[in-house]
Structure formats: C-alpha cells, structure tokens
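> @MW can you paste both from yesterday?
MW: sure, first one:
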Amino acid sequence: MPASAKPHPTPLTAQLVWAEAGQPSPAEAYLNTLSPSGRRTQATALANLAGIFSEGKLDDPLQFAWQNLRYEQTSSLAAYMVDIGYAKSSVNKHLVALRRVLEEAYRLGLYSDHNSYYQAAAVRSLRNEALPRGRALKEDELQALVAACLADEGNPNLGVRDAALISTLYVGALRRQEVVDLNLADLSVEEARLRVQGKGSKRRYVYLSPSALLSLQSWLDLRGRRLGPLFCRVSKGGKIVLRRLSPQAIYYLLGRRALQAGLEAFSPHDLRRTAITHLLDAEVDVLTVSAIAGHASTDTTRRYDRRSEESKRAAAQKLRAPLPPGSPDDGPGRESGDLNDQASSSR
C-alpha cells in the first residue's frame, strides 16, 4: 500500500457480518422514515457501507448486522472513502446514513452495550466548502423556455403540460421529486396553494402567483379533474395518460425544451436555485424563502443564492489588467468607471 493511502476500515469477520434470522432490521427501520427519493439514495449508501465493512462479502443492508460495528470500524471510514475517490459531500451522505442506521439498531435493542453504540456512532461529517454548483436562469431565459413549450405545434397538449410544470417548478421553488409526487388533491385553486411533500416526508404549503395558477388551469382543462398525479404523461399523439411521471422524465423534458429555446443546458435544480435567488433579490426575507423552499436551515437557503456570483462578476469588470499603453484593453470602449481610472485621478 502506498504511504499516502488510507487503510481500509477494519472489516467485520464473516461470523459478524450477517444479521441473525428473525432479528429486526435497523436498515429497514431507517429507510422507512424517508421519502421515496431519500429512500433510494440512502439505500444505495447503506449498500456501499455494508460492502466496505464486510470487505465485499455482503452488500445487502437489510441482511447486514449493523449492531456489530464498533469504533474501530467506523472511525476510519471517512478518510478511506475520500482516499478512494468519493467527494466530501457524498462521504457526508454516507456518514448520515451510518449514524441513523446505528441509531435504529440502538432503538431496536440490538446493542447490548450503550458505550459500543455511542462510540461507533461518534463519526463527524467532513467540512465541505465546495464551489457553488449550477446557475440561475435569467428572466428572458425563463420566458423563452415557456414560449418553446407553447409553440409546440406537433403536440400542443404536451406543450401546455410542460409550460405548467416548468412554471410550477419555478414559482414553487420545488425539487423535481416534489413536483412528480404532486397529486390533484394537493392543489387548492381557491387558495392558489399546493401541498408539497418534501424531504423526510415533511409537508409544507407553497403558493402560486396568478400567472402560474393560470398556466396550471390551462393544463387542468386538458387533464380533467380525475384524482391522480397532478402532472401525468402525454402520449406522442397528445393523449392524456393518467400515469405519474418519473423524476428522470423531468430531466428529459427540460433538456428538450432548453434545446428548442436555444438555451445553455441547465438542471431541474437550477430552476429551484433561480427561484430562491430571485426571491432574495426581491428582498423577501431569508426565513420566508427558507420556508418556501422547505429548507431546515437558512444557511442552506443562502448557499442557493447566486447574487454574490453576479456581484463578483460585475466587480471584476472594474479592474483592468496592467497592460502597457497601446494594448487592446487600453483604448476606447474600456469601462470609464473602472478602479484604475479612479486610483489615477486620486493621486
């Protein structure tokens, strides 16, 4: 092993890897507390952890004996995962899954010694100060996106659905899983309100602007008022099929509409970033924006704010490179209010 490589966490012996028959499953207890999207993500994380702690002998988290983990196994996990190429944010998701599954094992009475649980679960998340991801769309980009939907002559029903879905994603600052989980029963037209199920099965209300509600009503005129998913499938021939969309379908439809509108690529989450940035730019207080977005902490909301990046970009235009006289940047057209000029005039 190279000197810089981190050692593999001490694996459990083969006898300690497998849960005893008939024992309650801490992994199942933990996963049952999560939303469908969270369950999929953390089930994968638990499977990865089971594989690491068993040294590849078992990757089924429901069969893994989590109560047999001790500090000697868990303490070196984070360093090992970073060393084999996991991003710190991904490592932290795995550490959350580990702490929670050990907590469920403790609650189920599977730890015979309290100290063994507390020591094994005492793994701290890594500090992760990553550069901001994604981008905020401009107002004209949002308008072009919806216009591309409504100009769909080949399948106008699909265009109306997509326009309403994009408007709802943006105005509600919704996650893609949240928008596909919406049911007709979650909409109150009279109050212009949606009931949203967020992460961790937490519910919140979001309110729609008159224009967003109008777009949604145009879709409902086509969809009808039958109970079921609010946004459902539309066939190539324009037939409304009352079956729920998948989160991946949101990626596809946004990618297709962005291409039609001639826009730079963006993700569904960028619509959420855009909404949060626009709300903060409109001087809506951060606590209200955090409640709209379903964030547990205002610190999370602030990380979505892209105004600081625009401010830095604008500030950069104020500084001119120290090029010799006669260089291209030294002639007419240079911004007259840059800091170099101000500094020269103050001497």
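MW: second:
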Amino acid sequence: MAGWGDREKPAPSDTSVSRRSTTRSSRSRRRGLHGQSPRLLLSLFLVAFVVAGVTSLTNGQAGQLAPQQDTAQGTAPVTPVPVPQSALTSTEALALVAALPDAVYTDNGSYAGNREELFGDAWSFDFDQNGCDTRNDILARDLVATDIDPATCRVYTGILTDPYTGETIDFVRGQDTSADVQIDHLLPLKAVYATGGEAWPAEKREALANDPVNLLAVKGTENSSKSDSLPSEWLPGFYPDISDRHDLGQRVVWDDLPADTSLQCWYIDKLVPVFVAYELGVTPEDRAAMSAVLESCPA
C-alpha cells in the first residue's frame, strides 16, 4: 500500500557498523484479530482452521526473523521461529471466498488525511512484542543477506526478490534509497476502512495495519502502482480491464487472464486468510475477481 511503505524513522547514527549483526530472513508468524487481543485471536483462528482441515495459512521460506530485543539484558538474540506452509487448495480457498460476508465499498471522505488517526502511527505498533518496529520486522523476514543493528533492529542492507515482479533489489537504508523497498498492505488500509473497517475499534484497525499476515516487502514502484487497489482493480503481473471504481459500478473483464496464473493464484492465496482472520466483508466485484483467479489454479 502506498504511503506507509517508504517511511523510515531517523536513526541516531546509521554508520554504527560495529553494532550490527548479519541475519537471514524468513516468513513470519500468522496473526488474526476479532476484536480481542491478537494472541488470543490468532489461537482461535488457527483452531478453526485445524477443525476445517487447514493446517496453516501462509506460503514462505524458512529462516530466521529479526532479532528479538531483550530489554532486560540489553541484548538482541536471533530466535528462529518455525514457519508453517500453506495447505489451502484452490477448492478450499474458493469455499472461504464464497463464505465471506457481503460488503459495499463506501468512501465517505472520512479516511482522507486521517490515516494515522484511524490506523495508528506508521509501524509504531510492535505486533509480536519482540522489541522491533513492524517495518524492520518485515524487512528482516523478507530480505536475505541482511545487515541488522541488533540494538535498534534497523535493517541497513539486504537483498529482496520482489514477489510481484521477480526482480532482485539491493536494499540500502538511506534517505534516497529506503523507498526502493516498501512494505505493502495486502489489504490496503483505505479499502479495509471503506468495506467495514470504519466500524471497527481502533485497536483492531491498528493491529491489521501492522499484522505480518497482511504485509509484504515489495519493490517500491509496484507498491505505488497497486496503491489502495483491491483484487478487482489490481493483481500482480496483470492489470484488469476496468471502467471505474466501486462507487461507479466497476466491472472487470476476466477473459484476458494470463495463460499462467500461478502468480495471481499465489497472491489470492495470501489475501484469503486476511479476509477470514479479520472477518472483513468483500464486494461483489472482488469476490468475482478472487473466484475467477482461483478457478484457474490447480486444485
């Protein structure tokens, strides 16, 4: 999602190389929220999926996460966390999409200029309580060959394979270079607010804005291209033939999906658990878009 992805909080000294340590990245923990505490809701969400026969919710690569800050000892040990693999088949994902509640996209203007008031200060929420801010947690998870300051969790350098384009990006933290890699909200905050999030308590909105299940490190220009778009308006590697946005009766032409939809299938597979975990409604256009992609995926 454009806006938050390229924001950095200034470091006291970005040249303190002696305090850095090199780590490898990984995929993160899955989280959820239903108006309760994130940890409780995650447990409830995972239990529900076990009952349904779905053992986990995310595609990822095993590795190590950002250093966890030990505030009592002043150290930051790196703690590997097991990363579950996705067990969702296209049939299961289709069933979940069909069961999502209906939503109407309503932009009444109250979101404009009030994003931080509605969703919290960008990346200030420590979702997993490891002492690291959200942006650096995601950079450490999604980049490889990372150079991290263990005292601040800041990621200074690393290599990203952009999930949307496949391009390799050499990330360097800095005023003119940090925006090359941005953090995308899979479900954009404006779209969440316009399809039911306006009625959520502030704590739930802030949790979704910082939940690793809804975040990806991506190429900055791709994040800007996607902006606040939902699946009926934007898919990685594919730009639907659209008329206007939801409030003008948007309809999508789906007869021009690429012959190989593996990238779009992966993207929808990442989105579905976020909708489910946060009980977010879906518009008819987006339900049709996700269903059309999933119907093209291997069973």
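> thanks! The radius of gyration is 19 Å.
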